[in-house]
From TrEMBL:
<dbReference type="InterPro" id="IPR010432">
    <property type="entry name" value="RDD"/>
</dbReference>
<dbReference type="Pfam" id="PF06271">
    <property type="entry name" value="RDD"/>
</dbReference>
<keyword id="KW-0812">Transmembrane</keyword>
<feature type="domain" description="RDD">
    <location>
        <begin position="35"/>
        <end position="180"/>
    </location>
</feature>
<dbReference type="GO" id="GO:0005886">
    <property type="term" value="C:plasma membrane"/>
</dbReference>
<keyword id="KW-1133">Transmembrane helix</keyword>
<protein>
    <recommendedName>
        <fullName>RDD domain-containing protein</fullName>
    </recommendedName>
</protein>
<feature type="compositionally biased region" description="Polar residues">
    <location>
        <begin position="1"/>
        <end position="25"/>
    </location>
</feature>
<keyword id="KW-0472">Membrane</keyword>
<feature type="transmembrane region" description="Helical">
    <location>
        <begin position="70"/>
        <end position="88"/>
    </location>
</feature>
<feature type="transmembrane region" description="Helical">
    <location>
        <begin position="43"/>
        <end position="64"/>
    </location>
</feature>
<feature type="region of interest" description="Disordered">
    <location>
        <begin position="1"/>
        <end position="28"/>
    </location>
</feature>
<feature type="transmembrane region" description="Helical">
    <location>
        <begin position="126"/>
        <end position="144"/>
    </location>
</feature>
<dbReference type="InterPro" id="IPR051791">
    <property type="entry name" value="Pra-immunoreactive"/>
</dbReference>
<keyword id="KW-1003">Cell membrane</keyword>
<feature type="transmembrane region" description="Helical">
    <location>
        <begin position="150"/>
        <end position="168"/>
    </location>
</feature>
<feature type="transmembrane region" description="Helical">
    <location>
        <begin position="199"/>
        <end position="221"/>
    </location>
</feature>
Amino acid sequence: MSKTNQRQKSHPDNNTIQAASQPSEPISPKFTYPTAGFWRRMFAFLIDLVILGIPAEVLGWVLMPWINKLGNASQLIGFIFVLPYFGMMNSSLRNGQTLGKTLLNISVRRNNGDFLSPLQSVLRTFVLFGYMFFNGITGFFPNAPRVNNVLFAIGLGLIVGLVLLYLINKETRQTGHDLIFDTRVVDLRKKTKEKPAKMAKYAWIIALAFALITVGGQIVVANLSSSQPVNSSLSAISENLTQEYNLSRLTFADRTVQTNSNNETQTTNTLMVRAYAPEKMSNEKNDEICSKLAAEIQQQYAEIGQYDAINVTVYYGFNLGFVSFNSNYGMTYPLSK
């Protein structure tokens, strides 16, 4: 009788086996993890950019003639890649992990341990890549250089602010998009019971101050070598030359530069011409295009006498915001008064 009882005890029932196979502690996003280190987060981001960059590069080469027609607005195409990728993967749909973060075992979490919703994560990604938005909008104002200067300056200031916040917050490594959405990038290799570190004092103030200085400085520098919109009569000339020389598009700007020499101020007015080519050309062909465009504009533009020179630059390439390829060839032709 006793032997039978011992034999029964040596074979646990199915419920016991299932209970033993369960983790002793349920997996939950509520755990507190330490902040991911600087290099771990940077390498994860670089891995993600490489993963996204390959298909984006292919798209850029395939659609280059069409992308060239968009000008700087082509940077908005980059959101087709970054918003779904970072937005969806950094959310609860993939436990806050892109492929790069998965490889380096880090994750995006809110400070209370929760994951971001897909919408929150998409908005967070938009803030991170906000510079692409401001630079892309400039493509809708090709002949409004002052507007472009302001938009470009805002995008540059945004980059400076985000980078400074990241560098100043050594304990939390939170930058602008993290602070707005109350998130941290954490290291999943170990848990901790310690409370999350706090943001560095005055980090927002310092970053905002430098961002504003950057914006103001960029606008001032741009105005020192000011670019003004040219006469609207160049629009018809642009259409004719674009078709004649098989270009994607032409843009014009009036650039004024002042220099001081021997206590004398000299002013140089240059007509800036940008020709976007649908395909790569040899230097000989670029030189031919530049000289022909300069000659045609000099003949057709009635107000060419107000300029001291014509600068013609042939551009070839694409810019999708986070990945780009650009090649240019430029020549300046002095004009006799």
